[in-house]
Please model this.
Amino acid sequence: MKIVKLGVLLCTIAGTAVSQSVAADSGKSDNVIKIGILNDRSGAYADLGGEGSVVAAKMAAEEFGNAIDGVPIEIISADHQNKPDIGLGIVRRWFDVEKVDVVADISNSGVGFAVTTLANERQRIVLNASASSDFTGKACTRTSFQWVYSSYTNGYGLASALTKQKLDSWFLITVDYSFGHAFSNDMRRAIEKAGGKVVGEVRHPLNTADFSSVLLQAQASNAKVVALANAGADMTTAVKQASEFGITSKQTLVAPTVFLTDIDSIGLAAAQGLQFVTAFYWDRDEASRTWSKKYFARQGRMPTMTQAGIYSAVRHYLHAVRAAKTDDALKVADKMRELPVSDAFAPNGKVRADGQFLHDMYIARVKKPAESKQRWDYYDIVSTIPADEAFRPLSEGGCPLLAQR
Model:
């Protein structure tokens, strides 16, 4: 019995040594490349990210055969419930116990700030789809990246364009946390810079079911534009109720952050003619259509800009790991800034020094019901905003990394 046990022990030690040797030779820690998709899986933002982002990330991993240099790629997921403390607790466990290398998606700025701070301390990478422009400003870190859009691209840009079209008085309806505050601030700056004014603003809690009192205040303000600085279920609920109150017949309703699933929920009859800025549309070109049809076969719906963006971000991260021949966060982060990006989400993109992924953005307009040929055929792309115009100039962000260069 002692000989048998000794043999088992020696085999175990030998197996561990081989495993450690493979990890060391590959440059990959823990002999696994582990990616955690953290987002809202049950609340207001579940449709725009949720399980769809997990599917998109898995599609990216599959392009590498689910392994790099023989080291497996593992994708896990969790629901932060739009609560920073819950999200932070999950990510702390991921980093300290489960040895997760990168966190992707998030799609909630409040959770995002907590996660990027911890990731900076632990030297782990964040592929952030949250919107606050502060992620590439005062809150930028060497290992964090903002991939899809920002409050600048979708708030500042849209408000600036409309104010210049003489829509120069605004009433803001703002979700009361960092996401809404960022949009409100960026829109205010654009409106005032273009010679307009904000005549009123009301903040509301996340997951508000009744916007009647807020909408009545907006209506009574006689502002030319009523802007919804919110997203997901809050935005779709507000749009539907605004239509019921007749706001859209006398005032211009603007929703800077619109996702494909939002239009599917609202319906073309209520949403037709709505214009907004988007990072992606599945029917934009041949590359986007080809990838989106593969996604549809897996998920049963076309991807939102966030879900397509997570595919792109994870794919680029894996390219960087392969090119750097390691999953060391600092080395991979440097390689991500060095390598160009070309995929179904962004055919000609690059990562800037502050972690901002630069890519073209698009002005989209919702089709009339008669113009739509099938479900998900909801947009026309009106124009393209080149990347160097769409994103905030590097010099204006205040990213502390720039002072270290």
